[in-house]
């Protein structure tokens, strides 16, 4: 049996195996999830024709601390489920033109929003810290943020910087533990909440490193940042088949930072790039618009 991923699934899975009284509690909750989130335990027990202790036994059985916790988790799961059900109804299945237009518009809107919110002073300070760093560490977890950390490493190594990227929560803490004064930590997070990123930021700061956070302003991570590059791209209406468009804003920040760092490290960066181009020419000859290792 697959482990249930939310409270509603937990109730659905265990309901058939429950004793009669607790099964009535499960069925009552599932029949009117929204109503259950707004009712008192006394009224709920009366409607289910069971005692309040029976209700409490049931909610603890499904991993809740009490009836209030049960209602809160039920409300959260119901809201998420309803959101994705609505999304499925709006999906234009097989309509390539509409899909392409929507993705294009979403990308351009995200880029415009991210550009309008750029803090030029913070961007300059971040680029200076990276260009002078003894070593640079790029970290992120989850979806786009982990990929962006890897992409930042891909942009910076070609300038001759000592740079590493990690999406491993344990390794992120270890990298922070061996940080030195003058190192730079670039931390990518859409929400600014993952525990490993907060821990790494706190540890790295304590070691004297500069922490550059690309995240939501007012997020927990932003409070740990030496330099904050605020990124607040409003989410598009939720569709399960459309990626989060915040990554377009993250890419804008990455490209701005890498371009600035390359300029700050001249003429060394130019010599490094020339050597990379020379090596690549040996692979497939000369082309006018050949990117440098992309």
From TrEMBL:
Residues 126-267 form the SIS domain. Gene3D superfamilies: Glucose-6-phosphate isomerase like protein, domain 1, Winged helix-like DNA-binding domain superfamily/Winged helix DNA-binding domain. GO terms for molecular function: carbohydrate derivative binding; DNA binding; DNA-binding transcription factor activity. Residues 5-81 form the HTH rpiR-type domain. InterPro entries: Homeodomain-like_sf, HTH_RpiR, RpiR-like, RpiR-like_SIS, SIS_dom, SIS_dom_sf, WH-like_DNA-bd_sf. Pfam families: HTH_6, SIS. SUPFAM superfamilies: Homeodomain-like, SIS domain. GO terms for biological process: carbohydrate derivative metabolic process. It comes from the Bacteria. Keywords: DNA-binding, Transcription, Transcription regulation. This is MurR/RpiR family transcriptional regulator. It comes from Microvirga alba.
